[in-house]
Amino acid sequence: MQYRPPPRTSTKREVPINSNDASLAAIVSGTWQGAFDRKHCGASPGLRHHAQTPRGHDPLITKAAHAPHNRSRRKVYPVFAVGASFVPGPGLRSMGICNISPPGRMSMSAGPDRHHAPAWQALAETLRGRLLLKGDPDYEQRRRVWNGAIDRHPLAIARCADAEDVRAVVRFASREQIPVTVRGGGHNVAGLAAQDDALMLDLGLMNRVEVDPASRTVRVEGGALWRDVDAATQPHGLATTGGFVSTTGIGGYTLGGGVGWLMRRCGLAIDNLIEADVVLTDGRDVVASEQKNGDLFWALRGGAGGLGVVTHFTYRLHAVGEVLAGVVFHPIDAAAGLLRVFRDVTSGVSNELTAMLVFTTAPPLPFLPPEVHGRRVIVLAYCWSGEATAGKRVCAPLADWGQPLGRHEGVMPYAAWQQTFDPTAPTGDHYYWTTSQFDALDDGLIESLLPHAIAPADPFSEVHVHHLGGAVAAIPAQSTAFSQREATFFINVIGRTANAERFDAVRAWVRALRAGLAPFARTGMQPNFTFEATDLATLGHSSATRARLDELRKHYDPNGLLISAPRA
């Protein structure tokens, strides 16, 4: 069975919803994105919703249109990126890397001048994918990452088609002494995939997904996005922990830990990683798992990269079909009360519930009163992955608290919920993030948080208040390289602006908020939410974990070929 999703430029969901699901389908298919569009001024036609209603009103119920399947058969889903040119064999005529005259000879007019043209030509002829050099039109598009604040120029970009290409690129870079970065989805806020004068190893063409329903496992190539994984696993009623935004790449996300809507029930992404296929910096292929290369496997789970190039990830899957989920918008003056209720309700709550509070600016959604549009609000977003009737009872103290401005909630396919927040993280805006971990949301912390969260430097900036615990905390801290699983709460400060001229102000706002929270915070930061390389190097891991990672990087990358993770 072959599966090819729509082009990735589309914001539409990739798991079918039947025609009766128009309300939730509209949100995840782009109508909500239109509402977030800075040029959008009115309500989005065609979006059904339910506004705030009296207690006892049944939320909208939706059902997935899953196709029949045979759980005993292994199914393969190749997924290709937009604009990808898959080359069935070597040869410059299909590469599109340069002007060719005559065929078989590469023009190096825009290429790196400190390395010999024949070496680059030989690499290009070896690859089944493509080699992009400066001056190539596709180079400009691929050098740019999700965060528009990152503007760097790699020496060249190798778009690998398979693990053999990865080995060829790594051996070439080692021989030529060229530093290498690795790009999966390009969604890292620090833009670690793009570095000036380095060779970018781009896995974007490697996004094949292979599901084994019988063993409840999925094997994924390193360039896939989480929406690719969901599209392949959800027809079987299966899922694993993925990002809060489905356009996140699986690779960097997993290597940094991997929090998401299923984390409290299923654990972090690294807790579901069974094995990884890795190309080491000497060009060798190894498998890392609990049984093989255990030290490398430990480091891959939360170490944030810098040990090798992971070409395949194999994850454990869980029974997740439909979820009870939604958003409930409250006026900003209810924030203090809602934070306290959130603190109290999440203490000891069932692991099937993952929730967060979001300080944001209200978009012109149809279920919100027009006078609220453009004003600062606080939003409860929650996902219950257990039985729906029990979920309504457990979620009620949070979902039914206060006097909401509007709400949109119901039972829906997990993949639909997973894509709901994609429009809030568009490619090309300028982002600056930070994160802090806490043992408790005490009143002093709440009082320090509110003044900053209510008044951002740009209306697109947000503050996300998460709770951890559950399956995340059940794993011993020393068993993986992720150092932040013992925290009870974490707060991500999401600085975002569409205007580059505001970026300095947004960065100052983020730093001021972090400074205000510092007296209440635990030491350390989650690697995946850290913009500053110095913070990642010094705060991304505990001192003991950092020391062990440094030793392992010296062992697996003795010449410092990989610069995907900074070294302390």
TrEMBL record:
Pfam families annotated for this entry? Answer: FAD_binding_4 (PF01565)
Q: Which GO terms describe its molecular function?
A: FAD binding; oxidoreductase activity
Name the UniProt key words of this record, in alphabetical order. Answer: FAD, Flavoprotein, Oxidoreductase
Read off the PROSITE patterns from this record: FAD_PCMH, OX2_COVAL_FAD
**Annotated FAD-binding PCMH-type domain residues:** 150-320
- Identify which cofactors the protein needs according to its UniProt entry: FAD
Q: Which domain of life is it from?
A: Bacteria
Q: Which family does it belong to?
A: Belongs to the oxygen-dependent FAD-linked oxidoreductase family.
Task: Please identify the protein, giving its name as recorded.
Answer: FAD-binding oxidoreductase
The protein's organism comes out as Dyella solisilvae
